[in-house]
Amino acid sequence: MTTALITGSTAGIGAAFARRLAADGHDLVLVARDTERLRDQATELHDRHGIEAKVLTADLSTDAGIEAVAARLGERRSPVDLLINNAGFGNKGRFLDVSMADELTMLKVHCEAVLRLTSAAAETMRERKRGGVVNVASVAAFVPRGTYGASKAWVVQFTQGVAKDLAGSGVRMMALCPGFVRTEFHQRAGMGTDSIPGWMWLDADKVVAAALADLARGKSLSIPDPRYKTLMGAAKLVPRGMLGGITSRTGRKYGPQ
Hints:
The chain is α/β, with parallel strands linked by helices.
């Protein structure tokens, strides 16, 4: 039986990955900051699907948290076959309205943690000649959107670059770029969503199903909905200055995930 490790597993896209992978028979390592919530999730998934669900409490905005997860990914006796780097958050407000400490924390979680955990996972996977890593980014990676969009753009470029470097190794790498997904993401960041049209919202379980299908096909980039694929194609034709004005009016605080 294979094992998947999911960061940010207790809510949103991470929880959807946990549900789907448990239903498919994968054992899980669930990673988040809230131990009680992790234990409740692990118990529910074990009782419902009969899989083993381990809990790893870690704050990926800290070196200690990243190191703890990297150590688990480096274990050879109980290897992780699939890593889902999902942990992330949004900051409310435009640039200079957000504290530098919060901006740096975002880079720690979205970039440094993804870099270090991908490296730890890929090393052991390459030794076994099999495995996969899904780094959750966002369609915000393709539009001017402050630190959030910039960090997600880094995730996309990093993941696709590593995918090329590891081609033929048996290790699959994919950046997942959803649009607006109905999760706790915006509420936890104190972000309003009234200005977002209903048709732009995606279902987390459908996002995960599309992502896993794209990973199985060997794709290095997944935009899991025809509407957003069309929007991102159109965005390439719009001058970046105009696109920046549109996204700033929508609000930096509305970073999709």
